[in-house]
């Protein structure tokens, strides 16, 4: 006894297996998936129904999907003063709009001038710093003097450390200070300090 699978039967009919599964469900034939096997009497019943539906669909005339000719409608009376929606502006209109925009910009600038406080121009009492003077002001000495302990300031002023080295030395100093504080706390807690 040869069993036919649902997907083989669907391929024979030239349809998707899902469509055949829905037809089997309508016929009250239980199948789980497209790989389920059908008995020979079930296959013959499906073939008979398929042929019947095929003939029925061939007998029904299908409506053509062509364009229908619209019934001729009477033209609506034209309005007397209807302007076209899109038209090109004339050169005079363009010039007029540009003149208005320029006048608005001039008015805004005048308003800003009136709002701006009048500050008398001060003459430079001191001459501008030279490049060398500004570089000296930005040396690591100032940074070291403000942010480092004195023993490291001497090294920085001596030119031993660069800025990267300065940051590393500062981190090491912090680590040592933190370590000393922890050791001191431990000794105090054990009563040996």
CA-based gyration radius: 48 Å
What would CATH call the class of the domain at 4-58? Mainly Alpha
pLDDT averaged over residues: 76
In the CATH hierarchy, the architecture of the domain at 4-58 is Orthogonal Bundle
CATH topology of the domain at 4-58: Arc Repressor Mutant, subunit A
Structural class: mainly alpha
Describe the protein.
- The protein has 193 residues and is an all-alpha fold.
- Among the domains are: 4-58, Orthogonal Bundle (Arc Repressor Mutant, subunit A); 140-190.
- It is built from eight helices and two strands; from the N terminus they run βααβαααααα.
- The protein has a two-stranded antiparallel ribbon with strand order 1-2.
Key attributes of the depicted protein:
mainly alpha, two-stranded antiparallel sheet, 8 helices, Arc Repressor Mutant, subunit A, 193 residues
Summarize this entry quickly.
59% of the residues lie in helices and 2% in strands. With 193 residues, it is mainly alpha-helical.
Topology diagram in text:
Layout (H helix, E strand, L loop, with lengths): L3 E2 H8 L3 H10 L10 E2 L1 H20 L31 H25 L15 H7 L2 H8 L2 H8 L5 H28 L3
Antiparallel strand pairs: 1-2
Helix pairs in contact: 1-2, 6-7
